Amino acid sequence: MNTIFILFMVLIVIACVLLVIIIMAQNPKGGGLSGTFGGTSPAQFGVQRTNDFMEKSTWTLGGVIIVLCLMSVILTANPALINASTKSKDAAPAKTEAPANSNTPVQAPATK
């Protein structure tokens, strides 16, 4: 596997874990992490800002995951994009074998 592909997979897994943590911190009825602060008013202790941050980070991480997935698919579908820069570094000169001469005798394995 290519290191760029592995890097994309690691970034996708990290973004997914962060997204799960943020979603689990939210409450479907709007309480979530903001309910921990104890106020019923959304303006106390910046609770509204917390909800806005949680919503924006959810959308942002979702977008990051989509972009990373698309980029990894594009790079996997066209390996020439990945190998273009590493081809000159990794390419070893191909060894060409001389054609076998049909006149050379084949030796049988030694028996004991």
TrEMBL record:
Residues 88-112 are annotated as: Disordered. It is found in: Cell membrane. GO terms for cellular component: plasma membrane. InterPro entries: SecG. One of its GO terms (biological process) is protein secretion. Pfam families: SecG (PF03840). GO terms for molecular function: protein-transporting ATPase activity. It is a multi-pass membrane protein. Keywords: Cell membrane, Membrane, Protein transport, Translocation, Transmembrane, Transmembrane helix, Transport. The chain crosses the membrane at residues 5-25, 59-81. Involved in protein export. Participates in an early event of protein translocation. Belongs to the SecG family. This is Protein-export membrane protein SecG. It comes from Frigoriflavimonas asaccharolytica. The lineage of its organism: Bacteria, Pseudomonadati, Bacteroidota, Flavobacteriia, Flavobacteriales.
